[in-house]
Amino acid sequence: MGRILALAYGVVSYLIFFLTFLYAIGFVGNLFVPKSIDSGTPAGSLTAAIIIDVILLSIFAGQHSLMARPFFKRWWTQFVPRPVERSTYVLFASLALILLYWQWRPITDAVWSIQSTAGIYVFYAIFFVGFVTVLLSTFMINHFDLFGLRQVYLYEKGEEYADLDFKVPFLYKYVRHPIYLGFIIAFWAAPTMTFGHALFAVMTTAYILVAIQFEEHDIVERFGDQYVNYRRHVSMLLPLPKKG
Description:
It is a single chain. The protein is mostly helical. It has one domain. Helix content is 66%, strand content 3%. It contains ten helices and two strands; from the N terminus they run H-H-H-H-E-H-H-H-H-E-H-H. It has a two-stranded antiparallel sheet. The radius of gyration is 19 Å and the shape is globular. The protein starts with a helix and ends in an 11-residue tail after the last helix.
């Protein structure tokens, strides 16, 4: 029964994540959703809006980084069964995003605004390329392991979980972090960039640049020279020619 419950928990956590991810597309792109980055009830003042939005982004960044660190996982799995640790991380990340969607305060003064129809289509095309890059990149490194489904599936089958081997599929041959690159593209490709959207884009980009340093430190500890050599020859975010 415990194995079945773990599988059900993992599936539900994944479904919540996937719906949250789909909502993110609408939220950032101001498309199809009831409340987006530039809609909803504004705060009473510009200062209040900035403070609230910064707090919301900081909650997500803090959760996303802290719960991913090995020392936290070692402590956390004293209370949370190891097979559902990843699913729990995914669930908490989704809840942090849902809180952000719910409480986000729009700041609608324009930083830039594209007026031509062709220009708007170009920006939205780039926007969708960003999110497609994110999704495809997760499948290249095992989407179901990344979001906890492989762990609970193996547990339900009574098979022991093993970490994935180091590999460099397709986009990872050109940049080390295509998932992060996709997010940066999507967050900045706005035909109308409001101040609130710019705040979101600046803070998430800064978070990504910092998070990569912590993430790569953990990856080097795990894979050693394999990753050191990979990092030496492949750019972090920009698909620049290989060095050496």
